[in-house]
Amino acid sequence: MNEDQTFAIVGAGQAGGWAAKTLRDEGFGGRVLLIGDENYPPHERPPLSKEILLGDAEKETCFLWPPTVLNETNIEMRTGIHVTEIKPEAHTLMLTGGEHVVWDKLMIATGGRATTLPADGADLDGVFTLRTINDSEAIRENLNEHTTVLIVGAGWIGLEVASAARKRGAKAIVIERADRVCERALAPDMSQWLHDLHVRNGVEIRYGVSIDCFEGDEKLERAVMTDGNIIDCDIAVIGIGLTPNIELAQAAGLEVNDGIVVNEQGQTSHPDIYAAGDNANHPNALLGRRIRLESWENAQNQAICAAKAMLGQEITYAEIPWFWSDQYGANIQLMGLPETWDETVVRGNRDKAEFVEFYLKNGQIEGAAAINNPRDLRFTRRMMMSNKKFIASELADQGVKLQKLLKG
Length: 408
Ligand SMILES: Cc1cc2nc3c(=O)[nH]c(=O)nc-3n(C[C@H](O)[C@H](O)[C@H](O)COP(=O)(O)OP(=O)(O)OC[C@H]3O[C@@H](n4cnc5c(N)ncnc54)[C@H](O)[C@@H]3O)c2cc1C
Hints:
Layout (H helix, E strand, L loop, with lengths): L5 E5 L3 H12 L5 E5 L15 H4 L13 H5 L2 E4 L4 E5 L4 E4 L4 E3 L2 E4 L3 E3 L12 E3 L3 H8 L7 E5 L3 H12 L3 E6 L11 H13 L3 E4 L3 E5 L6 E4 L4 E3 L2 E4 L3 E3 L2 H5 L8 E2 L11 E3 L4 E5 L4 E4 L3 H15 L11 E6 L2 E6 L7 E7 L4 E8 L2 E8 L2 H12 L6 H5 L5 H6 L1
Helix pairs in contact: 1-8
């Protein structure tokens, strides 16, 4: 199929890797060119703030496939190479060094980069962000019983760093501009549950403050807070969010709006250019709105769908967003992106840290969050897809199986 064509993929992270593999799995016989500016084969990032940071795994465990798979499937992988320009009308792209590549179809899977803090001293040695394998390994070297780690931002990455720091014996201080942890993702009572978990594990969390500047003689020694307080620390990890890598697409004249704008097939405003993963702003028919998702499942499944669409298959991408985090051995999972709801139902035991919380609007489940209860959470997806109405007291009753409620 399409033997004389070249399909190029910019970005060899999770979405790029899956797009390349899918083209081959679906029988594409032309040239598959996968270009990534990191020096590693396609890999996934969740372990970078979990197992790798804890020292329980090495970087090779993040690789999507053993290196031989790329050769066996005839995927041409160019690592450590940055794409500097895309010319949609000429169907070319340019690499660092000036080499031109001609493509027939293109996927932009450039993900995003950790947002940096515009504070004096943020470039000192010892101030980190966490996005790459190299970041994770460098931070890990500094997590031990002799170090104090200042974490800026109580989002998922910041809290996972705090968890790893405590497990490795370091002192962890988290500062957060908002008044609770994971403010954008969690209901207030779930934020409180997570706050308590961290405090029980010895983390100090300060709310309503940010960084004024970092100070140190060549290397970080202290941070000055916006409230004037000073925190002595050995390293700081900035976890304040992700900036999607959209500049290439923007310069190429593609439509961008909080990410590269794509349709249900992952197609951008140019018919031969697709995008998927953290950088893609896509319509989600199940949620009834456009979203840009930063999640493992989305990076994989959206890329698979877009790659199939590149091959002309009639396919649409719409999934209920799912996300997980692991902290101090507790597994936290979220389903959906609820914006408003009128009822919260708890099923299970909060004190024993084994429960799921459903967020209901007019009886329908808008979303759910679970602590150490992946089974119920997984089933929630089917309940949400059913568009059925549920009765709060039945949902809360652990004696009644969720399967029965779905059928009934
Ligand atoms: C530390 C960490 C922990 C996470 N934990 C979880 C989790 O527990 N659960 C969950 O659901 N999600 C988690 N995520 C999110 C998930 O990993 C991302 O959603 C996913 O990696 C996105 O994949 P992507 O391919 O879109 O982007 P990326 O994986 O970032 O890949 C993009 C690649 O493109 C390269 N690139 C960019 N521009 C160019 C260019 N011009 N030329 C060449 N190459 C380029 C980049 O260097 C990068 O290698 C985590 C993310 C991080 C960073």
